[in-house]
Automatic annotation (TrEMBL):
This is Serine/threonine protein kinase. It comes from the Bacteria. Residues 328-348 have a biased composition (Polar residues). Keywords: Kinase, Serine/threonine-protein kinase, Transferase. One of its GO terms (molecular function) is protein serine/threonine kinase activity. Residues 319-348 are annotated as: Disordered.
Length: 348
């Protein structure tokens, strides 16, 4: 299966975590991971604790747990409701963090609650009163990362990768179904083909793979043409035009880069571009990578591309030699102009 991002769906919506993970528990763990990553943007030296059996009331922290000052972040995935139950959970989480600090011998310097919602008026009033009371009695600075604060952090430039990771959803698509690759049994059958001659003219003499690629592209082209499905015929024509453009762009650049010498990197640059472009070809023609490489060789074989600056001259000479080899089947013309039959006897 291939994971495909849904472009334009990166809205910061913490409800999405339930859909993404499939459960509230999964969303809670996902939210905690996001908080840790955001703390890491501000404090690269942050750390966390695994539950063994408890987590000391810490989801992320900065500082030393050995005789030091520690800043703690606690996540609470309060997404649906906020009332007395949630207030009690906040109190319990804070008291646990404070008690663990006293027990383990470090100082709880700051405690930040992180939750994916904003408080209404009454609950904001409760939070402000509780925060003021605990800061005065415990000497701990208490802060709140609510929905608006989290959104602001996520929209910062430093948090771009985190925002994309958590809020650009993906969908699973089946891997594309490509047509099978057929093994070429007789490589000699293409020995005189123009696409082979163009490769050899450019100094590339290992052409068997290119012959097999061309062979498979020919099968693809014939099957699409024979079926004559308009959508597939148009898709194949469009694909070949796109591949031709990839060649032309790199041919022009290669000529500019080396006005007098051979175009050494042209072949590999074109084929690398074809490899990158291959997944973008229409699924309807089911072109595997071998077929796609072969379509480039087809274009060369048609005289519309090549691997050297003078590829047009090579194509012209090839066409002239092919025309010269086309002779009548029943007789030939002798040097002195008299017709001879196939056995070499003169006609009356």
């Amino acid at each position: 299966m291939t994971q495909v991002p849904l472009i334009g769906m990166g809205t910061i919506n913490f409800e999405f975590f339930k859909i993404k993970t499939g459960s509230v528990d999964g969303a809670r763990a996902h939210f905690e991971e996001m908080i840790q990553d955001l703390v890491g943007v501000i404090h690269p030296d942050f750390s966390t604790l695994d539950a063994n059996p408890g987590d000391w009331g810490i989801d992320a922290y900065v500082g030393s747990l050995v005789d030091g000052d520690v800043n703690v972040w606690q996540s609470k995935y309060f997404i649906d409701d906020f009332g007395k139950s949630q207030q009690d959970q906040i109190r319990d989480a804070y008291e646990q963090a404070l008690a663990c600090a006293k027990r383990e011998g470090y100082t709880l310097s700051t405690w930040t609650l992180c939750m994916p919602r904003n408080l209404d008026g009454p609950n904001e009033k409760w939070w402000t009163g509780w925060k003021k009371k605990k800061e005065k009695s415990d000497g701990v600075r208490i802060a709140l990362w609510n929905q608006v604060q989290l959104r602001r952090l996520l929209l910062s430039e430093d948090a771009t990768n985190i925002r994309n990771y958590y809020f650009n959803p993906t969908v699973s698509l089946p891997d594309p179904s490509y047509r099978p690759t057929v093994t070429l049994a007789n490589f000699d059958q293409y020995e005189g083909a123009l696409f082979v001659r163009q490769m050899e003219h450019a100094g590339m003499f290992e052409c068997d793979d290119a012959k097999e690629e061309f062979f498979n592209a020919e099968i693809l082209s014939h099957e699409v043409t024979d079926k004559a499905v308009t959508e597939e015929v148009e898709a194949l024509s469009r694909s070949k035009a796109e591949l031709g453009s990839l060649w032309a762009q790199r041919f022009n650049v290669a000529c500019q880069a080396n006005p007098d010498g051979p175009l050494v990197d042209l072949y590999v640059n074109v084929m690398d571009a074809v490899r990158d472009h291959h997944p973008k070809l229409p699924a309807s023609i089911r072109s595997g990578l071998v077929h796609t490489f072969g379509m480039v060789h087809q274009r060369v074989n048609d005289g519309r591309a090549g691997w050297a600056r003078d590829y047009r001259d090579v194509a012209r000479e090839h066409l002239q030699s092919v025309d010269a080899d086309k002779v009548p089947t029943n007789n030939t013309t002798s040097v002195d102009g008299e017709n001879e039959n196939a056995s070499g006897e003169q006609n009356d």
